[in-house]
Amino acid sequence: MNPAALFIIASDPRASRRPAEAVRIAAGVGAWGKVDVSVYLSEAAVLILGENAGELLDGGNFERYLPVLRDLGRPLFAQKDALLLPGLGPAALPFEEISDAQLAALASDCNCVLRF
Fold this sequence. Notes:
- This protein is of the alpha/beta class.
- Helices cover 32% and strands 21% of the residues.
- Helix 1 links the parallel strand 1 and strand 2.
- Helix 1 packs parallel to helix 2 (59-71).
- The termini are far apart.
């Protein structure tokens, strides 16, 4: 069984390049095939799920690497009831909303948790 890594992205992609870099790193680690990668988006970071993700800071990273994450076969996770989710419009990628308790269970099953 491969080790597991959870990328928790909470930074605002309208004001920080950290979410784009986190997505790039997660896609690279996942493509390696030796680590099971999960990505959880909270707060304003859920904006990267929208159709307009390319317009955010370093949006090219979202357009290039989010499909790689999707193709790894693991769902993208989003904070349940995040304030910006209702205004997101149609999501560019499928995602699963999870509660704080579900996030804690996911994190406890991972060997490494990285926060951006």
